[in-house]
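Cross-posting from the modeling subforum.

Setting up a comparison between two proteins and wanted a second pair of eyes on the formatting. Protein 1 (sequence, then structure tokens):
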Amino acid sequence: MTATPAEHDAMRRALDLARRGPRGVNPQVGAIILSADGEILAEGWHRGAGTPHAEVAALAHLAPGDAQGSTAVVTLEPCNHTGRTGPCAEALIAAGVSRVVYAIDDPGDASSGGAARLRAAGVAVESHVEADAAHALLDSWLTVQALGRPHVTVKWAQSLDGRAAASDGTSQWITGPAARADVHRRRAEADAIIVGTGTLLADDPALTARAEDGSLLPHQPMPVVLGERAVPAGAAVHRHPLPLVQYAGDLDEALADLRDRGVHRVFVEGGPAVAASFVRGGLADEFLVYVAPVLIGGEMLALRDLGVTTIGEARRLSVHAVEKLGDDLLIVAAPATEGVS
């Protein structure tokens, strides 16, 4: 049996609920309990570490027995382990739920297996409903689970001929106001923003996420600097609401430390050498390239050497979207999967 229209609608609602929860160590999850005729009986979402999981939060709105014969619609496979809370699969079974519909499998070694546990108890299970939307919501959390590091977005702005600055080093501003506003919005969605000491010393960036009027947006990314050179005492980054974190060593070690600090989404902003180091290391999960309709020329390339010596070694990308922002273009891309040419 495939998911019904009512179950698809409920999954989209569950994804909206999931977004209300905080991003962090735990995934954002939403749940809906449907009656046999497809009416919503209860809904819930995970509100953070140590709080009830989404399924249990939804069931808590029902009296004992009211979930008998119902369908639970959940954005992530119900967990099958005991941590700070009990297994959600067991809670659904105990409540008398007869069918569970979920979007994506739980990748955790300890927490996965909920679907198998439900089926063993006679509960019908339907998976991968609205899976693309769920993956988009949980991409950073899924990266942490799969790779043990934060999801990395590498961003740069360039002229149409691929330059990041003029020959004298000036780069403010290649792109226009609409593109810069988009960058700040995306900064606010990240847990950390990374630049190298070269960019910090040349541009003195604040590394904050700001509204068009210059005020700080509600969520601020952790400011991170890569490199051994000292950050001047008067640097703008020291006025950031969060303390500066600086790494002088290996990128993998820096990302592992950020993961341990609860960082799931990293926004790499510069400069060309830092961006290239993430690409060379295979550490870039997403690219945001803002292209301005200007020509600069010269040697100030937007991306430094990637170690590519022949065209067969080129880093192939899949373009996911192209957006027009004022006079500029934003290209959203990711490393191409096998077989993409």
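Protein 2 (same layout):
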Amino acid sequence: MTAAGGATPSESKAGLHVVGTSVARETDSVLDRVAAAVGRRPPRVLQVGARSSAAERNVRNWRGLIARRFGSNAVFVGTDLAAGANVDRTMDICGSKRSCAAALGEAPFDLVICCHVLEHTRDPWRAARNIQALLRPGGLAYVSAAWSHAFSASPDDCWRFSVRGLIRLFGELEVATWFYSGGDVGLDVAYRVVRDGEPELDARAGAVEQGLFQVVLDHDDNRAMLARQATDRLPVSRTYLPTLFVDMVGRRSR
């Protein structure tokens, strides 16, 4: 698998560079890539897991972003398992190719957005295959999935994904970029790990990631932190991770 894109490093550790960015900036970059790919043609955009809810007030309104960037001629289709606000088609992204075609038609998409969905699916391998198949050559997939997150059963919570896990899952795509993003309301921070200005895809980046995001507490600090919680917590571990999502932008090359 190859990587594309560039970055200006701001911090160095173990030969790698950590680049501070934001999800808003990275989202704009995704739309720039779409604009460059489609030219004057209005894009076709699919959002998997599009149903809006009050609990997701920090989730971006992709329909609005696409309309503002590309105008009313852009095609935007929001899908979800259940009907609701922002949903145009009800379908299961883990279903068969035939069921996906029945819901969406045969026309491919220039951008497929799948944010905060894969960790809840029953079959992320099939979901990834379907997303890749829905892209036209040169089309982009923007995938964001939980790496560290509290249990969230909506409707179920099945998986967690590392960067390398997503890269393997979407093996047919060329990685354009990837980054980590925070998940708290009002906190728009993101970080990329690069080498020589390119996204670092090697597992050796894990040593940097562990140092950046992991907090190890001794026994007394562990118990003190648990005692400060509003409800009871069990002292099962002395190691904590923040709410963290892995974000990957991949391009279908053929």
